[in-house]
């Protein structure tokens, strides 16, 4: 008689299963919480100076740290720095400019070194955090415009908005007649 013990299949203990689930699930869950937006952009600075206020009284706000954003109008490269001209827009709670909001004046964002204009195309939205420098006067058309200038410490170029898909209206558009079965149970929705 051969009496070899038969091995029962091992079942994982509940604690081991929980450990495996946590080991696999926790990194995935934490990766979902990560944001590509810098911390300085997501949180407002202590001073809520607007571009219009900085334009009216530039010396009163000189040296303040601000978080401004807007729509890119132009990129100008100079020998030692790059200046991006923006039309200021209202920011939402995460620091993203609302492209549909009315313009709140213009300002210049000054980046050290070279910034490729292809990376910052016109009509894209940009948020910057930095220190206010003395204003500069440039012509907008024939008008001498005094620009508030921000020495950029942090910036975030927001992705282009994806347009909503458009679906064809179908054969029954524009719904001039809903048929004889129109009623509370057969609504046009």
Structural class: alpha+beta
Q: CATH superfamily of the domain at 40-157, please?
A: Nucleic acid-binding proteins
- For the largest sheet, list the strands in their spatial order: 1-2-3-5-4
Q: Distance N terminus to C terminus?
A: 79 Å
Largest sheet, in brief, is: 5 strands, mixed, barrel
Just give the CATH class of the domain at 40-157.
Mainly Beta
For the secondary structure, the number of strands is 5
**Low-pLDDT residue intervals, each spanning 5 or more residues:** none
- Number of H/I helices: 3
Give the mean pLDDT.
82
**Shape, please?**
elongated
Order of helices and strands: HHHEEEEE
At the fold tier of CATH, the topology name of the domain at 40-157 is: OB fold (Dihydrolipoamide Acetyltransferase, E2P)
Computed CA radius of gyration, to the nearest angstrom: 29 Å
Question: Which percent band covers the strand fraction?
Answer: 25-35%
Percent range for helical residues?
A: 10-25%
Summarize the structure.
One of its GO terms (cellular component) is outer membrane. It contains three helices and five strands, in the order αααβββββ.
Features:
189 residues; alpha+beta; 3 helices; 16% helix; elongated; Membrane protein; OMP_Slp
Written overview of the protein:
- The chain is α+β, with helices and mostly antiparallel strands.
- It has a domain of 118 residues: Nucleic acid-binding proteins (OB fold (Dihydrolipoamide Acetyltransferase, E2P)).
- The chain has a five-stranded mixed barrel with strand order 1-2-3-5-4.
- This is Membrane protein.
- It holds the Pfam family Slp.
